[in-house]
Design a protein that fits this description.
heterodimer; A: about 475 residues; alpha/beta; six-stranded parallel beta sheet; four-stranded mixed beta sheet; 23 helices; globular; B: alpha/beta; Rossmann fold
């Protein structure tokens, strides 16, 4: 196995050994998946809504060049400053530059996977800007020097006691401030409100961008997204270049399914659409009043970082993704191992396609093997991405790059040769059955020989039936005739 | 030397030429133009039920005096002595601000400056305000959301900074859904620098999936439907 693959397996082992993590995962994913199911059941035409959301995303991606260019032009026309970042390093440099030129010392951030992807916080701290995460979960992650374990609810790996201890250690919280979850939430509100009121820059991601008006949309439940994009004088939004929808109607189509898929809510608490920075008064000198608040500068940083290249690969469909996290909550693998085990910014089925797609097959294709291809992810995807198909494409690509272990590369052609020749397949089947029967005891095989022993290390293997399926099938067909 | 913009767009075009995108899902919009909107009374009931399910409160009142009484009651319950608000002409209830001030609720006027230093002081001065009063451009029956469009006299902070948000919404502004609203007003998103849909009080479930209200935005959201 390659080193990244070995490391992945070590992380899986560690996650599986963590009993508390497994309980927390079962609780969280079960509740989110159940909420999602109920929210879609409540829709009169759930399938039509998913179809419509898929159409909105597909039409955007099919002409992504023109929609993205239109978006940039419309946003610029409304007073935004649009930047183009080809790489994560470019994005870091652009945003650090904006902060440095304006002498900004404190930035507040609303939750954004794209900023995690480009490792923005470290770059800004390096540029002398203190960065404060304001989503409650991300705030806890930041205080603990930790990483998010779910793209929607980042601290499912933390208990209330963990958070209480962290608040006491890092914030000097009194026991009464951490007595229960509402008290801890109130404490976070007080601490973060002070930061909001002092910050010179607000940094956000973008859930969806509307090409026809140059608008960006950010959905949050806490309201930190609104404060981040309203209080500071400068707002910087990092936009993954695929998050475009052509029209306002397309935005509505995606919003219909987004929160339902993420948390089971019919709507997020705040659906926040911004079109340009605050608008000044009509007459020069501010004779006629303009907007009383909002940022004076709105910078939109369009991030490629491998996305445009991905468009030309068999993984292109993953660019429809709107990062709702529904596929995590139903994935039998994610539900057991959680987000950290995947090792990257994006976990679960979507991460197993995005990580190798954006950050290289060499380091990340092993993730796609952590799937039974059961299809639960495809069934809940709000834009109906065929995730099992994409996971297979990652595996195919890894095989073509000879990334699989040597014994698999040797064994697979042999298997293919046998499986495509019925006579040879029957022969091999009979031989295997004879061997299996010799090893069985009361219908079960305790230990398989050679490399197969790994399979029986933690479970027994059922002994094959005395008559092979094919023989049984022929016999029944003959009897029916 | 090409610009990053040109290089990224060229890379996208190159990708699209080799694209393996599935052929489905790429037709024209399939949704119908929307069936006739339900009666106002029906939408009002649906809206009230949806907002109540989100822990929001719905009141009914009419006239500046009636609405002001409801707001003054909320302010008393929440021990709010001051408020920030939209200008009177945007509240859909003429004379409401005067009626509030005669009931002892002091309005703090604000406009946040573009100057960094003054801005911080101005924002800090709003930190202790107890109540925000807005109107609404529309209310959405299916989700219990209200649509707020920013502009002169219609500040964004009013609905997010204070711990209590009261929105005065004329019943005629009810629409079945966001999709229906945007069909009716395709240019809505461009009508202000900020269009926000607020569905109930601020909430989080980040710690142990336990629902808690008022984490950053208002803990209490009241909608007063007026005839």
């Amino acid at each position: 196995m390659t080193e990244p693959a070995l490391a992945f397996h070590r992380r899986i082992d560690a996650a599986l050994a963590d009993a508390r993590l497994r309980r927390a995962l079962a609780l969280t994913t079960g509740r989110l998946a159940g909420g999602r199911a109920a929210a879609f059941d409540a829709l009169a035409d759930a399938e039509a809504c998913r179809h419509e959301a898929r159409r909105a995303r597909a039409s955007a991606i099919a002409s992504l060049d023109s929609h993205l260019d239109r978006f940039a032009r419309e946003a610029t026309a409304r007073g935004c400053t649009v930047h183009w970042a080809e790489t994560a390093a470019d994005a870091r440099q652009i945003i650090s530059g904006i902060a440095r030129e304006r002498g900004i010392r404190l930035a507040v951030k609303s939750k954004s996977m794209a900023t995690e992807e480009v490792e923005l916080n470290e770059a800004l701290e390096h540029a002398g800007v203190r960065v404060v995460e304001t989503d409650l979960g991300e705030f806890v992650v930041q205080l603990g020097g930790d990483r998010p374990s779910h793209i929607i609810t980042p601290i499912i790996h933390r208990s209330r006691q963990d958070v209480a201890a962290l608040f006491q250690e890092k914030l000097g919280a009194a026991p009464a401030d951490v007595a229960d979850i509402p008290a801890m939430t109130a404490l976070a509100r007080r601490v973060l409100r002070a930061e909001f009121l002092q910050a010179g820059m607000g940094i956000s991601g973008v859930n969806l961008a509307v090409a026809e008006t140059g608008s960006i949309c950010i959905v949050t439940n806490e309201g930190n997204g609104r404060l981040t994009t309203t209080l500071p004088r400068v707002h910087v939004a990092l936009l993954g270049l695929e998050r475009i929808v052509p029209t306002a109607a397309d935005l509505a189509a995606v919003l219909t399914v987004l929160a339902r898929s993420a948390t089971g809510q019919a709507s997020p608490v705040y659906t926040n659409v911004m079109t340009g920075p605050r608008r000044p008064g009509a007459a020069p000198g501010g004779q006629q009043a303009g907007d009383p608040d909002g940022p004076d500068e709105l910078h939109i940083v369009i991030l490629d970082n491998g996305r445009s290249r991905l468009l030309g690969t068999p993984l292109a469909e993953i660019l429809y993704c709107v990062r709702c996290g529904a596929c995590l909550n139903v994935c039998p693998v994610y539900r057991l191992i959680g987000g950290h085990a995947y090792g990257g910014v994006y976990p679960g089925p979507v991460g197993s396609v995005v990580m190798p797609g954006l950050h290289g097959a060499e380091d990340w294709s092993e993730l796609a093997h952590a799937s039974s291809l059961c299809g639960a992810c495809r069934d809940v995807c709000p834009v109906k991405i065929d995730l099992p198909h994409l996971l297979l494409a990652v595996r195919r690509d890894a095989a073509a790059r000879r990334l699989a272990p040597v014994w698999i590369r040797a064994a697979m052609p042999i298997y293919a040769a046998v499986a495509t020749r019925p006579w040879l397949y029957r022969l091999a089947g009979r031989a295997a059955a004879r061997l299996a029967r010799a090893l069985q005891h009361e219908g079960w095989i305790r230990r398989l020989p050679g490399p197969l022993a790994a399979w029986t290390a933690s479970r027994d293997f059922p002994a094959p039936a005395s008559r092979p399926f094919v023989a049984e099938h022929h016999a029944r067909k003959a009897a029916a005739r | 030397m090409t610009s990053p913009r040109e290089r990224i767009l060229a890379s996208i075009r190159g990708g699209l030429l080799r694209s393996h995108l599935p052929a489905d899902g790429n037709g024209p919009p399939g949704r119908d133009a929307g069936s006739a909107a339900p009666a106002l009374r029906e939408m009002a009931e649906q809206f009230s039920a949806a907002l109540a399910a989100l822990a929001g409160h719905v009141h009914r009142a009419s006239g500046a005096a009636g609405v002001a009484d409801v707001i003054a009651g909320i302010a008393r319950d929440q021990q709010a002595a001051t408020c920030i608000s939209w200008d009177d002409e945007h509240l859909g209830c003429p004379g409401l601000l005067d009626a509030l001030s005669s009931r002892g609720l002091t309005r703090v006027a604000y406009a946040v400056s573009g100057d960094p230093e003054r801005r911080l002081a101005e924002a800090a001065a709003l930190a202790g305000v107890g109540l925000g009063v807005t109107g609404a451009h529309a209310a959405l029956a299916d989700t219990g959301g209200i649509v707020l469009v920013s502009g002169p006299g219609r500040g964004r902070l009013v609905s997010v900074l204070p711990p209590v948000h009261v929105a005065v919404v004329e019943e005629r502004r009810l629409r079945p859904s966001l999709a229906a609203l945007l069909r009716e007003e395709p240019g809505l998103l461009d009508s202000g620098s900020n269009v926000v849909i607020v569905a109930g009080p601020s909430r989080t479930a980040d710690i142990e999936m336990t629902l808690t209200h008022g984490v950053h935005g208002p803990k209490h959201v009241h909608v007063i439907l007026t005839a």
